[in-house]
Structures are given as structure tokens and as C-alpha cells.
Amino acid sequence: MVKHQPLQVYERQLCLSCLTGIYGCRWKRYQRSHDNSTKWECLWFIILFLTFILLLCWAFFWWSARNDYSEFNWLLYNRSGDWTDSTVAIVTTTAASFTYVAFLMILALCHIAVGQQLNLFWLHKTLVTAALLSTIAGLIYINRLWGDEWNTIVISLQSMGPFLHIGALAAITMLAWLVAGQVIHVERTNSQALLLLGYLGAILCLYLAPLAITAPCLMDSDHLSPRPAVIGRRGAPTLAPENTFLSFTKALQQKVSGLEADVTISLDGVPFLMRDHSLRRTTDVDRLFPKRQFDGASSFSWAELSTLNAGQWFLRDDPFWIVQYMTPKERAQVANQSVCRLEEMLQLAVESNCSVLFHLRRPPLGHPRHVSWVNDTLQVVLRSGTPQKRVMWTPDWDREVVRQVASGFQQTSEEKLSTEALQDQGILQVYLRYNQVTRSDLRYEFSANNLSVTLYTVNEPWLYSALWCSGVSSVSSDAPHVLRNVPYPVWLMSPGEYCLIWILSDLISFAIIIGIFIFQKWRMSGVRSYNPEQIMLSAAVRRSSQDVSLMKEKLIFSEINNGIGSSEELSLYTGNGYDCYANEGIAC
């Protein structure tokens, strides 16, 4: 008599097929395995995890540095001589790489959660390696070119600390399901203890992290300083060509309290406004004076400078992606801009009753005004009728002479010196980059000694809010129209409110984690309590666990190995939706 054996009928597992197919190109059932992952694949999981962490830091850096994208592009221009918005390509590539690696990381964690063997596809390995190496190369390059920007990460972490803490707490709470499953599945006690202790240590660190968070906007509203004044840095360069009359007009329309400009002395002693060493980027000097386009700006006479156009480059390069939103009238105004004299800006400041701050560039040796450059500028300021108390004088050269001629000038230092040194020099104000001072410097050093602080360049609302809460008196901005729409800090929370949120978040997280561990323990203990007579290949169980499936397979193959004595011992599973037989020796 021919003996028959019952076959195990598998139901379709579309999600599992997609999971193993996308991660390891294992789309077929026979390609999958519940065996432990090889050491090689474990190593690739570690590489994937390190790439994810590195890309997360890289992406967070560029998110924090978006306030200074224009500065980064200008640094590249000084090195290459060509103006391009390189941040667009960098940010796009970073976002795509991080999304891709994060997706692979989620798939790898899902493999671990369902007990599937890790087997990263070779194409993914190649792309992950490329992402890792390119990110490392980018970090090294940025550290050499723009090393000062790393401090921005610290500022952003302090500013967004409470929210980052809650996000990290939510992420590690969700990992409890994976950790609980692994702790219960692992048979070796040492491995269980090591995994559990590591997870509990991370949880404990996050639970106590608020003790180290010192966000500037964690304060009572009664202690909030007055809103910092906004100075238009080179006017409003995101709305009009920098250092032009139109740019300063646009800045005044945004209710700025002062105007800031870069001053260069022409060959015949006329102070004019120009940021760059040459005229190539912001004028059409290559068209009118092609042989002199690489010469210094101070080597031109005012008669030559007045013939240059200082607005067409803005329409051509569109450095701030604003031209497409301009009306035809606005574009015509931009196209007709010329090089602006210091006298014109001062006259505009007098009419608007606002302060002025300018940076002087000394002409090179051999220039007719190499010695008299400070006096040339000083005489223009005095003749303009600008109230001396509204002039922030920054040059250290001949500062004593300037103080004797114009005692009302607000002497301003561009260096971070000790308060004693500043007071000895008669300095009343300090003009520094925003990442050069700390909150304690503002609160206990400068404010305590009646020193006013102006920080540059502040373009983002989150940074403006953080400096506002820190007690800064004024900021210099390329985007005064953006800061005008920040009448109050982006967020302000009292310590008591945050303490309540902190405790509630920790309690909710702890309760969820305990519940997950209890549920996982109960679920697995229920599976392990089955005996062979209770295990049935039932279609009613649509999504059986890994352990149930393994025990079903063991039960079937044990019956096959033991053999069945007669036809009466055959089992017909038609009641459970199965009606399948096989000749002896046929395997599923």
C-alpha cells in the first residue's frame, strides 16, 4: 500500500517577501532563513549603523548651518573665483543619502525583529560604502575650510534641546519591542544580561538628560530681555544687490535700526561700498575693463567706478532664489543699480534717523590713500551730518585720533577681548560672530560691565530667538525681512512647565516599556506551552509567530521520520482548509 504524508501548506507572506527582497534581494521563500546571521553580515550591519549615525550628524550640521549658507558660498568663491550656490547640491545629496541609509537601517531592524537572517544585497553594500566614504571626506573638507561652524551645532543643540530629548525618548521607547523580543529569544544568559543592561543604561541616560539641558529659552517670560534690534548687513542683500542704494532702502522698509556696510577707498580718495577685494562678482567690470577685472577695487578711480553696473549680476546669478518673485518694475530697479558711495548711505541713514556701522579696508602699499584712508573716511562721516552717537566705529587703526576728533562715536571692537582691556581702550560696544560668545558671557561679563553686544550674521528665526533669550541687544542680519516676522521667540517655556513635561514623558515611556516586556514575555510563554497535540495547521491563524511555525515544521517532519503504519493513521486536514497529500519521501 502506498503511504501518504500530510504536506505543510504555506500562506502568502507579502510583507516578509518585500522585507527580505528589498534588503537582500531574497524574494523567494526558499531563499530566506531563520539561521543566525554570519559574522560578515553582522559586520555589515555595524557598518550600516555607523553610516546612519554619521549621516545623521552630517544632516544635522547642515540643518544647523542653514543660517550661514551665503557665507559658505562666499568662502568657496574666494577659493575658486566662481560664484555658485554649492549648498543646494550638498543639502540635496545629504537628504537623499540619509533617507536611503535610514530606510536600510529600518529594514535591518525589521529583519532582527522577525528573526530573519541578515543578508545585505551587494548593490546596497556598494552604495552604503560610497555614502560612508563621501561623508567622511565631506567632514574633513568642512573642518579645514569652515571649522568655526562646528560651534553652530552646540548652539542648535542647546536651543532645541528639550524637543530633541523628547524625540530621542520616543525613538528609544519604540526600540523596546525589538529589545524585548531579543532578550526573550536569546538562550544564553550572558547575552540577555548584556543586551538588557545596555538598553537600560541608554534609557536611564535619556531619563536624566534634562538635568544637563540648558536651553536659553527655558525661562519665565518675566525675565525675557527686550527684542534685539536688527541691523541691515549690507542693506538687505537677500532682496536686492548688496551694498547698493536699493539694498539699504529695502532694509529701511523692514524697520531696521541701523545700516552696515563695507567701505573701500578709491584711487582718488572717495569711500565707496564694496565687500569683495575685486569687482568681478558684483559688477560688470569684465565688460568695461576686461584687462583689469582681477585688479583690486581700490585701484579704480571714482569716475571709472561710477560707470559700472552693480545690479545685473543679481538678476543673472540669483544668489538667494528671489528673482522669480520680483515684478518687472523691481527687476528694472535692480538692473539699474550702480556702485554706491559711503556718502549716499550716510545721507539715507540721516533721513531715517538710524545708526551706521561700517568696516574699512585699507588700500594696499603704493596706493595714494594708503596712509590717509582713515581720515578720508572720517571726513566723509563728519560732513554727512550723521549724529556721532549713531556711528559705530570699528577700525582699530588711529582709534585715539578718531576719538579726539569725534568723541561721540560709539567705539566698537571686532575682537573678543577681556572686559578690562575693552574698558581701558574706551570700548563701549562689541561686534562679534554669533558663535564667539556664550550665554554666560552675555549675562555675566558684557552686561555686568555695561557693554553692548551686536552679533552677526543672524538670519534664521530659531537663532534669533535663542540670542533674544540669551540677552543680546542687537544683531546684524542679511534677511531683516525674515526677522521682522519674529515678534516673539519661536518658543518660550518656563522651567516648571518643562519639568512637568519631563516627568510625564519619562513616566509614559517607562510604562510603555514595562508593558512591552510583559506582553512579549506572556506571548512567548504562551507559545512555548504548546504541545504537539495542540499544534494544528489552521488557516484561522493568519499570522503565526516564528516559534509556532518552527514547531509546526518540527512536528510534521517528526511524523515523516517516524513513519505511519497504516492508512488509518493518515490525517486528512480538510476541516482546517487543507486537503493535500504526498507520497512518502516527498518534502515540502
Automatic annotation (TrEMBL):
The record's PROSITE patterns line, in alphabetical order, gives: GP_PDE, PROKAR_LIPOPROTEIN
GO biological process entries? lipid metabolic process; positive regulation of neuron differentiation
Q: Which GO terms describe its cellular component?
A: plasma membrane
Q: What stretches pass through the bilayer? A: 42-63, 83-110, 122-142, 162-181, 193-213, 500-519
Please name the GO terms that the record assigns under molecular function.
glycerophosphodiester phosphodiesterase activity
Pfam families named among the record's database cross-references = GDPD
Which controlled-vocabulary keywords does the entry list?
A: Glycoprotein, Hydrolase, Membrane, Transmembrane, Transmembrane helix
Q: Does the keyword Signal apply?
A: no
**Primary location:** membrane
Which compartments does it reside in? Answer: Membrane
Read off the InterPro entries from this record.
GP_PDE_dom, PLC-like_Pdiesterase_TIM-brl
Q: Does Metal-binding count among this protein's keywords?
A: no
Please report the record's description of how this protein sits within the membrane: Multi-pass membrane protein
Q: Where is the GP-PDE domain?
A: 228-487
Q: Which PANTHER family match?
A: GLYCEROPHOSPHODIESTER PHOSPHODIESTERASE DOMAIN-CONTAINING 5A (PTHR23344:SF49), GLYCEROPHOSPHORYL DIESTER PHOSPHODIESTERASE (PTHR23344)
Q: Which family does it belong to?
A: Belongs to the glycerophosphoryl diester phosphodiesterase family.
Protein name as catalogued: Glycerophosphodiester phosphodiesterase domain containing 5
Q: Which organism is it from?
A: Scleropages formosus
From the UniProt record, report the name of the gene that encodes this protein: GDPD5
